[in-house]
Backbone:
């Protein structure tokens, strides 16, 4: 069965319009999907917390496109700012987290800035971060018990060493002098003979007495001859 030319042209026209609509819908869907997956500031959040006894500031990026983003943290105080640190994060659907160690004070305010080279993101996280009213608790070091001193037994006493005699001390008693040794000059008695040192004097006196006695005898004899 042949189709009339007019009907064939109408069918072709409808098919073309349907294909065009389908293509347009596909383009719009892809565009919407691309816009939804693009990195934007709403995907970033920040908070201040404690890690043990140390303060930290964490920034979470839930960007499913994984666009690299530079995150910079500033402390705001008395109208001035101080940069705490800057790190790069690649977001994930579940959320990629950056941690900045900061010994924050209670009720302090921090500004968090995010910048990407793609999608032209260059702005702060809305509201920034205000730290809690209570600082992180400081852990006190655990005091170790002082070990009890173990009594030690006294060292065995060593017998005192026998003192060696000094060189000046004689090792033997002095030998007694011989009995027949000569007495020093001037002693009143002589050991060998028992004679007195005055023997010469006595001999002289005796001689004088002999001479005197002889003179007396001679005189008496002479007197007797004259009588």
Residues:
């Amino acid at each position: 069965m042949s189709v009339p030319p007019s009907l064939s042209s109408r069918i072709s026209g409808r098919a073309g319009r349907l294909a065009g609509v389908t293509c347009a819908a596909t383009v719009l869907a892809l565009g919407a999907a691309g816009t939804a997956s693009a990195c934007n500031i709403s995907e970033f959040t920040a908070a201040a917390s404690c890690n043990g006894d140390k303060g930290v500031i964490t920034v979470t990026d839930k960007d499913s496109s994984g666009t690299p983003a530079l995150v910079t943290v500033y402390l705001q105080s008395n109208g001035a700012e101080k940069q705490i640190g800057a790190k790069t994060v690649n977001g994930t659907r579940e959320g990629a987290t950056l941690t900045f160690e900061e010994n924050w004070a209670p009720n302090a305010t921090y500004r968090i800035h995010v910048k990407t080279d793609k999608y032209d993101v260059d702005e702060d996280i809305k509201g920034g971060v205000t730290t809690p009213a209570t600082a992180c608790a400081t852990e006190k070091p655990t005091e170790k018990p002082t070990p009890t001193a173990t009594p030690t037994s006294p060292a065995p006493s060593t017998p005192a060493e026998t003192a060696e005699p000094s060189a000046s001390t004689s090792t033997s008693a002095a030998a007694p002098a011989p009995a027949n040794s000569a007495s020093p000059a001037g002693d009143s008695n002589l050991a060998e003979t028992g004679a007195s040192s005055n023997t010469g004097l006595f001999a002289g006196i005796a001689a004088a007495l002999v001479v005197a006695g002889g003179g007396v005898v001679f005189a008496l004899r002479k007197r007797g001859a004259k009588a």
User: Anything to note?
Assistant: The chain is about 25% helix and 25% strand. Confidence is low (pLDDT under 50) at residues 26-36, 165-175, 181-193.
